[in-house]
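TASK: fixed-backbone design
INPUT:
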């Protein structure tokens, strides 16, 4: 079904190439005539900055607190009166987000039950589901190599053992929602251009 505005979420472990693919898809959609609003989670809101302080070891935070902060940040991301996702969609933008609620399912359920994480994010899910979720699958060893080349500081979750666990949880989360959501799984070990070509093929029916 072709639509004049879309909501597309990118998912994947750290270092999977999401940011690069968001930029490439943005350029493609703009060439197709869409006005596009790119965004990301955690956001730059006060809640999002609190999350980043925990990630960068400037603040302490229990894993349950982190999960709850992400759920709050996501609701604010959706509902903010000026630059919230719902507002941007109303204004006719196609919105591309780097991470949405499947990230919470995957990252937080390493520590707490996925059912609890899903309950935390139920309100966001009821407000807006993606037209398409692009999951870029990447072997953790490759993603960590990429991160070590591009980052001076490694955040809380950016360890090989954690990325292995998160990848497993992503697959569990996708299995959980696959019958009710449109998810495209792409091998992220290929070149950025090849990955983008697969993403374009997934998006083209809508544009």
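OUTPUT:
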């Amino acid at each position: 079904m072709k639509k004049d505005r879309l909501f597309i979420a990118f998912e994947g472990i750290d270092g999977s190439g999401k940011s690069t693919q968001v930029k490439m898809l943005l350029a493609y959609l703009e060439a197709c005539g869409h006005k596009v609003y790119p965004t990301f989670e955690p956001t730059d809101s006060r809640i999002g900055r609190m999350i980043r302080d925990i990630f960068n070891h400037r603040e302490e935070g229990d894993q349950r607190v982190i999960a709850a902060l992400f759920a709050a940040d996501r609701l604010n991301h959706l509902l903010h009166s000026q630059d919230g996702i719902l507002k941007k969609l109303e204004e006719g933008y196609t919105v591309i987000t780097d991470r949405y609620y499947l990230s919470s399912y995957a990252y937080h359920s390493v520590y707490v039950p996925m059912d609890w994480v899903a309950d935390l994010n139920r309100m966001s899910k009821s407000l807006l589901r993606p037209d398409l979720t692009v999951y870029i699958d990447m072997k953790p060893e490759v993603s960590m190599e990429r991160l070590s080349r591009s980052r001076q500081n490694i955040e809380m979750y950016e360890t090989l053992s954690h990325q292995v666990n998160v990848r497993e949880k992503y697959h569990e989360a996708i299995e959980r929602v696959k019958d009710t959501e449109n998810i495209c799984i792409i091998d992220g070990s290929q070149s950025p251009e090849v990955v983008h070509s697969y993403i374009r093929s997934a998006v083209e029916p809508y544009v």
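COMMENT: The beta strands are 7-11, 36-40, 94-98, 132-137, 183-187.
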